[in-house]
Design goal:
The protein has 780 residues and is mainly α. The strands form three sheets. It has a three-stranded antiparallel β-sheet, sandwiched between helices. A two-stranded parallel sheet has the order 1-2. Strand 1 (17-19), helix 2 and strand 2 form a beta-alpha-beta unit. Helix 14 (297-307) packs parallel to helix 16 (331-347) and helix 30 (611-623) packs antiparallel against helix 31 (630-640).
Length: 780
C-alpha cells in the first residue's frame, strides 16, 4: 500500500496528501501514511475534531516537521440551514434551524445527527417544503449514543461537574466555582466541553458545550437526581450579581463600530444565543409567575411586552389576554393591553377591520385616551393596508386633542418614515415620551430616519450602539429592530459580510415576537439577495424561511416579498425586468409607501439599469425634494441614455458620497445590461468605465450583480422556440413556425446551453414569464 501510494504522489506536478477525520483512522493506516509522507516529502493535511471530544489513541503528529494548526469556527446560521437541507432533502424553518444550531453549537456532525434523529423520532415534520418542530424539544433516545461518545473517558468528578452545570445553566465562573472545583472546570475546558464567554457586564461566564449535553444530563439518564447538589447550586446561584449600569462610550466612527463588530464575529453564535435566551426565559417565567399570582393589568403588561420582541408562548398569551382583571387598570396600560390584543389577532390571521374594533371600543370606554387609540388604529391601517391621504390633517387633529402624547408622536414618527419624510420622523422622536410598558420604538425610528435621509454611516453607528444596549438589557425587540437598521445601512454601503453576520446572530435566536416578526422576515430576504443574484440558476436561500403570508408591497424596505421575488425570478430580458420593476414601484407609491419605493428603485437601477425605473426614481426624489442621490441619478441617466461621453465627465468629477458603493454597483449592472443583449460595444465601454472608477476609488467590496448565467443573450427566435418547447414537440414547433426540425433542435440546444437549464420543461419555465412571444400572444 505504501509503495502504490508513494508512487502516485511522486508523479510530476504539485500533489498533497489529505486525510479527513484522522481520529477515526486505524493505526496500521496511520503507519502507511507516515511512511509515505517521509518517503515523498509531500505535504500532508489532516482534519480532526477537537481532540478533547474524542479518543486520544491516534498520534497527535505523524512525523516531525513544520506544522500549522487551524481552528475551524463553528458553523453559522446560514451554513446550518444549508447542511440541514442537504441532509434531509429540504430546508428547515427559522425556529428549527436556530434550535439545531444552538443545540449542536455549530458542530457539523451534531447538526446532521440532531436533524436525522429528530426526523426519525417525528420531532420535526415536513410541511409545505420545510421541516417544522412538532414540540419544544429535539432531544430523543437516538442521541444517547452520540452524547456518550462525547463523554467517553471522563472522570467521575468531571461528570458530576457537568451535571452541576446542566442544572445551573450559563453562570459566572466565580459562582460556578462554588459548586464545581476550579481544576475540574479547567479539565472540562481543555476537553472542549465548556464554552467561556464574557457577557456585557464584563462577567466571565461558562456553560456546557455542545448544549445537547445539558439535555442529556437534565434527562437524569447517567446520574440520579441529587437533591443535595441541586440545593447547593440553587443557594450559590442566588448570589448572582445584579445588573449594574455600564456606561458604554459612544462610537465616534464607522470604522470603530465595524472593528467591534468584526471582533464579535469570533464569538460563538450558538453560545451567545443560548446565553441570551436563557436570561430571557428567566425573565419571562418570573413575570408570568407574578401575573399568575396577581392577574393585574400591570403584571399583564410587563409579561406581554416580552412577547412583543421575544419568542411567543401562544397558550400564555391567550390566557393572559382572557383572564387579566381589567377593572382597576390605568388607561395607558389598558391601551397597551388592547393594542396587544389587536396585534395578536392580526398575527393569527384575523382581518384588520375585526382587529381594530378592540381599539375603537377602548376609545369609547376611555374618551380621554381616544386620541391614542385612534393613533394606534392609524398605525395598523397604514402598516397593513395603505397610507391615508390626509395624514397631516389627522395628526393635527390628534395633536390638538392630546399634544403631549408619546403614543401619537411615536406613531407619527413611523408613518413619516413610510412616506419618506425623515426630518418629520426625527422631530416626532424628539417629542415622544413613549408609553409605559411599550417596547422602545424611538431608536428604531431615529436610526431609519438617519438612513433614509442619506446619513448612512451615522445610522449604522447609532443602530449598532443601540443593539449593544438592547443586548445588555435583554431587549430582543431592540436587538431585532436595531439590527434591521444596521443591516440596511451595511448592505447599502456594500458591507455584505458584516451585514450577514449581524443578521445571522438574530436568526440564531429563532423567530422573534409578533411586532418585529416582519423585520425578521425582511432580514431573511436581505440575507438571500446575494445568493439570489449570484447563483447561475434560481437557488434556495434563507428567504424561503420568511413567512409566506407577506404581501408584495410593504411599508419598509424588505418587509414585503415583491423585490426579492422579482430578483430571484431573474427574467431573461433586461427590458422585461425594467417593466416589472416599474410596475412594482408604482404599486408601492400608490399605497403611499414612498420609502420602500425609493429604495426599491435605487436597488433595481443599480442592479440592472432601466429607463422606466429610473424615471420613477427621478420623479419621486424631485417630488420629495431629496437631493442626497443627485450624483447617482445623473450617472444612471447617462448610462440609460447611452451617453458615454457624459458618463465619462460625471465619473471624472464624481465626489465620493453615501452612494459610492451604489455607483460601483450601477456600473457593473450597466455592463451586464449590455452583455445580456449582446451589445459588445456598450459592454466594453461600461467595463472600461468600471475599471477606471475602481482604479480611482479602490475598494475591496465586490458590488452585487447578476451572474453571467442568470441572464443569457437569447435571440428572439430562441426565446420564441423555448416558449413553445414546454408543450409542443420539435416537429410541431417546426410546422408551426415553418422551419426545419433541425433548426428547431439547434435553437433549443443553444437555449439550453446559454441558460444552463437541465431540460426543455425547465427552459420553458425560465422564459415563459419574460417571453416577447408570450406578450405578443397576450396582446392578441
Amino acid at each position: 500500500m505504501a509503495d502504490t501510494l508513494a508512487g502516485r504522489l511522486s508523479r510530476p506536478g504539485e500533489r498533497v496528501l489529505v486525510v479527513d477525520d484522522l481520529e477515526f483512522v486505524d493505526t496500521e493506516t496511520v503507519a502507511v501514511l507516515d511512511s509515505v509522507r517521509r518517503r515523498t516529502k509531500r505535504p500532508m493535511i489532516v482534519t480532526m475534531s477537537e481532540s478533547s471530544l474524542y479518543s486520544m489513541a491516534q498520534p497527535a503528529v505523524l512525523s516531525p516537521g513544520p506544522e500549522a494548526r487551524v481552528h475551524l469556527d463553528p458553523l453559522r446560521y446560514e451554513q446550518v440551514n444549508e447542511l440541514i437541507a442537504d441532509t434531509l432533502g429540504a430546508p428547515a424553518d427559522a425556529d428549527t434551524t436556530a434550535r439545531i444550531l444552538t443545540k449542536s453549537a455549530g458542530n457539523p456532525r451534531l447538526v446532521v445527527r440532531i436533524a436525522e434523529t429528530a426526523s426519525l423520532s417525528d420531532l420535526i415534520v415536513l410541511r409545505q417544503g420545510q421541516w417544522h418542530m412538532t414540540g419544544d424539544t429535539l432531544w430523543n433516545e437516538h442521541l444517547h449514543g452520540t452524547v456518550e461518545t462525547l463523554l467517553e473517558g471522563l472522570e467521575s468528578d468531571e461528570l458530576t461537574g457537568l451535571q452541576a452545570m446542566a442544572i445551573a445553566g450559563t453562570a459566572p465562573i466565580d459562582v460556578l466555582q462554588q459548586v464545581v472545583r476550579s481544576d475540574v472546570l479547567d479539565r472540562l475546558e481543555q476537553r472542549g466541553l465548556i464554552s467561556v464567554m464574557e457577557d456585557h457586564h464584563n462577567d466571565v461566564c461558562a456553560s456546557i458545550t455542545p448544549p445537547v449535553l445539558a439535555d442529556y444530563f437534565r434527562g437524569q439518564r447517567v446520574l440520579t437526581s441529587r437533591r443535595v447538589l441541586k440545593n447547593r447550586i440553587i443557594r450559590a446561584l442566588s448570589g448572582l450579581p445584579q445588573e449594574s449600569d455600564v456606561d458604554i462610550n459612544s462610537a465616534d466612527s464607522l470604522m470603530r463600530v465595524l472593528a467591534a463588530l468584526r471582533l464579535e464575529q469570533s464569538s460563538d453564535d450558538a453560545a451567545t444565543a443560548r446565553h441570551f435566551h436563557e436570561q430571557i426565559s428567566v425573565l419571562e417565567r418570573q413575570r408570568y409567575e407574578l401575573w399568575d399570582a396577581e392577574r393585574s393589568v400591570s403584571n399583564a403588561v410587563a409579561l406581554l411586552s416580552v412577547y412583543w420582541g421575544s419568542p411567543i408562548d401562544a397558550s400564555r398569551i391567550e390566557r393572559v389576554l382572557a383572564q387579566t382583571l381589567t377593572s382597576e387598570g390605568e388607561p395607558g396600560e389598558l391601551l397597551f393591553l388592547a393594542f396587544t390584543k389587536v396585534l395578536w389577532a392580526i398575527y393569527k390571521g384575523t382581518g384588520l377591520d375585526c382587529a381594530g374594533g378592540a381599539l375603537r371600543s377602548f376609545g369609547k370606554e376611555h374618551p380621554e385616551w381616544s386620541a391614542e387609540a385612534e393613533a394606534a388604529e392609524l398605525f395598523l391601517v397604514a402598516s397593513y393596508d395603505r397610507m391615508p391621504e390626509n395624514l397631516d390633517e389627522i395628526f393635527a387633529r390628534l395633536h390638538d386633542r392630546h399634544p403631549e402624547s408619546g403614543v401619537i408622536s411615536s406613531v407619527r414618527g413611523i408613518l413619516e418614515l413610510y412616506r419618506f419624510n425623515p426630518s418629520a420622523a426625527l422631530n416626532a422622536v424628539d417629542t415622544s415620551g413613549g408609553l409605559r410598558g411599550l417596547p422602545r420604538i424611538e431608536p428604531f425610528i431615529r436610526g431609519m430616519a438617519l438612513f433614509s435621509s442619506g446619513r448612512i454611516e451615522e445610522s449604522i453607528v447609532f443602530a449598532l450602539e443601540q443593539r449593544t444596549e438592547a443586548r445588555r438589557n435583554l431587549d430582543q425587540f431592540g436587538m431585532v429592530s436595531n439590527t434591521y437598521v444596521a443591516a440596511q445601512g451595511l448592505i447599502y454601503r456594500g458591507y455584505f459580510d458584516d451585514a450577514e453576520y449581524l443578521m445571522g446572530s438574530i436568526f440564531a435566536m429563532g423567530r422573534p415576537g409578533f411586532l418585529v416578526d416582519s423585520l425578521h422576515d425582511a432580514m431573511l430576504r436581505l440575507a438571500g439577495l446575494r445568493t439570489a443574484t449570484s447563483a447561475i440558476l434560481p437557488a434556495t436561500t434563507l428567504a424561503t424561511q420568511a413567512r409566506r403570508e407577506a404581501e408584495d408591497i410593504g411599508p419598509l424596505p424588505g418587509i414585503a416579498r415583491g423585490v426579492y421575488e422579482l430578483v430571484a425570478a431573474r427574467p431573461l430580458i433586461p427590458a422585461v425586468f425594467d417593466g416589472k420593476a416599474a410596475k412594482l414601484i408604482q404599486r408601492q407609491l400608490e399605497r403611499g409607501y414612498v420609502l420602500e419605493a425609493i429604495y426599491s428603485a435605487l436597488f433595481f437601477t443599480c442592479l440592472l439599469p432601466g429607463r422606466k425605473v429610473l424615471e420613477l426614481l427621478r420623479q419621486t426624489l424631485n417630488e420629495y425634494a431629496s437631493t442626497s442621490h443627485d450624483q447617482l441619478v445623473a450617472i444612471a441617466a447617462a448610462v440609460v441614455e447611452d451617453d458615454h461621453q457624459m458618463l465619462g465627465v460625471l465619473l471624472e468629477h464624481y465626489e465620493p458620497d453615501a452612494d459610492f458603493y451604489q455607483v460601483r454597483m450601477l456600473l457593473r449592472g450597466a455592463f451586464k445590461r449590455y452583455a445580456f443583449v449582446d451589445n459588445t460595444v456598450g459592454a466594453a465601454a461600461m467595463d472600461r468605465a468600471y475599471s477606471i472608477f475602481a482604479t480611482r476609488f479602490p475598494s475591496a467590496d465586490e458590488p452585487i450583480a447578476f451572474s453571467s448565467g442568470s441572464y443569457s443573450p437569447l435571440t428572439v427566435r430562441e426565446i420564441e422556440i423555448a416558449a413553445l418547447a414546454g408543450h409542443r414537440s420539435n416537429p410541431e414547433i417546426a410546422e408551426h413556425l415553418r422551419i426545419s426540425i433541425r433548426t428547431v433542435e439547434s435553437h433549443i440546444s443553444n437555449a439550453l446551453r446559454k441558460t444552463g437549464s437541465p431540460s426543455r420543461t425547465a427552459l420553458f419555465d425560465l422564459v415563459r414569464d419574460s417571453s416577447p412571444f408570450r406578450e405578443k400572444r397576450l396582446s392578441e
